[in-house]
């Protein structure tokens, strides 16, 4: 089983190219202004323009308005939208791009119900619930809360890093994994050695 990898919170061209050279399939660009990893549309356009073919550029949003999604997705030439807030299915589907929906996981959250509600999504991204934070907290959730029969492709996120990624994949069996803080030297600045170690952990898990 080949596990796809998205490196999120990219703010620099050099970090995007490093991630891709080490095997990442996608990069994430955060268009939520309150984030320390926020990237302006013009900078995002520069990053995406530097990418080689067959690498996905994903825009990450938290309760955006329609015009902001249209402006940023067009300016940066995005391939996929990722919604991390309380966006409705109708909102997520109103754009010309496919989307994935993030869910903050904790005990009592019905992931099967989420998957049914967002049936138009290309996948569900499961992140850790932390009160007041939409994501990117660096905390792990209990992977046993993931139902084995989730009907949408599972993208696993939340506190992943080189030391736990193989176990995370073994337990959750995701379609893809998403990492940000686990491969950083500082917020928004990626560390090539950490990315390399993370990617090695992913490759090791594929043979389990």
CATH topology: TIM Barrel
Query: What do we call the CATH homologous superfamily?
Result: Aldolase class I
Q: Extract low-pLDDT stretches.
A: none
Strands in their spatial order, largest beta sheet: 1-2-3-4-5-6-7-8
Rg estimate, integer Å: 16 Å
Strand segment count = 10
What count of domains describes the coordinates?
A: 1
What structural class do the secondary elements suggest?
alpha/beta
User: What is the C-level CATH assignment?
Assistant: Alpha Beta
What is the beta-strand fraction? 15-25%
Q: What letter string, H or E per element, gives the SSE order?
A: EHEHEHEHEHEEHEEEH
Give the helix level as a range of percent.
25-40%
- In the CATH classification, which architecture applies? Alpha-Beta Barrel
How many strands, what sense, and barrel or not for the largest sheet? 8 strands, parallel, barrel
Count of individual helical segments: 7
Intertermini distance: 9 Å
| Rough outline | globular
- Summed over residues and divided by their number, the pLDDT gives a mean of 94
Family: Belongs to the TrpF family.
Domain N-(5'phosphoribosyl) anthranilate isomerase (PRAI): 5-200
Keywords: Amino-acid biosynthesis, Aromatic amino acid biosynthesis, Isomerase, Tryptophan biosynthesis
Pfam family, one: PRAI
């Amino acid at each position: 089983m080949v596990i796809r990898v998205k490196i999120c919170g990219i703010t620099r061209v050099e970090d995007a190219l490093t991630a891709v050279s080490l095997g990442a399939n996608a990069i994430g660009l955060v268009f939520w202004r309150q984030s320390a990893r926020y990237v302006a549309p013009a900078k995002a356009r520069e990053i995406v323009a530097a990418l080689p073919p067959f690498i996905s550029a994903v825009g990450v949003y938290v309760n955006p308005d329609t015009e902001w999604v249209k402006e940023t997705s067009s300016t940066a030439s995005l391939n996929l939208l990722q919604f991390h807030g309380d966006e409705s299915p109708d909102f997520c589907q109103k754009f010309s791009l496919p989307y994935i929906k993030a869910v903050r996981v904790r005990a009592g959250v019905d992931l099967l119900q989420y998957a049914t509600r967002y049936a138009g999504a290309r996948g569900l991204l499961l992140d850790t619930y932390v009160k007041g934070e939409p994501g990117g907290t660096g905390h792990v959730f209990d992977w046993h809360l993931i139902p084995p029969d989730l009907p949408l492709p599972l993208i696993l996120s939340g506190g992943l890093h080189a030391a736990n990624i193989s176990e995370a994949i073994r337990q959750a069996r995701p379609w893809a994994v998403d990492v940000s803080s686990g491969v950083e030297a500082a917020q928004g600045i990626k560390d090539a050695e950490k990315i390399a170690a993370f990617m090695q952990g992913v490759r090791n898990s594929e043979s389990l």
